[in-house]
Design goal:
Number of strands: 0
Oligomer: single chain
Number of domains: 2
CATH architecture of the largest domain: Orthogonal Bundle
Largest sheet: none
Distance between the termini: 28 Å
Helix content: over 70%
Length: 104
């Protein structure tokens, strides 16, 4: 299930397997209530908040809001804003796909 791209040096076989299993688990969940339950079971409140914040940041970066304003609105550090912007532009395309779906 991996993309065939070069993996980071610390991505051991077990890590790749865990990632693939997690992706398969998410893909298999179509019902929003079941997805929400799974997310609440598998993630801490802090992890859920951090992921939600990153998605907010990505949306605002995509809308060309200045980084300082994004930081003010979301509470994310400017380092987080910069990191999310980097992955939005140069990452795997996940942020873009989610943002595109949200704008339909």
């Amino acid at each position: 299930m991996t993309s065939g791209k070069v993996l980071p040096a610390d991505a051991h076989d077990e890590t790749v397997q865990r990632f693939d299993e997690l992706v398969a688990a998410f893909v298999g969940l179509r019902d929003p209530e079941v997805m929400a339950a799974f997310l609440r079971d598998i993630c801490t409140t802090a992890e859920l908040d951090a992921m939600g914040q990153r998605l907010q940041v990505a949306r605002l970066v995509s809308d060309a809001v200045p980084y300082q304003e994004i930081s003010r609105r979301t509470g994310a550090s400017t380092a987080t804003v910069t990191r999310v912007a980097h992955w939005l532009r140069y990452g795997e395309g996940g942020y873009g796909a989610v943002l595109k779906r949200g704008r339909k």
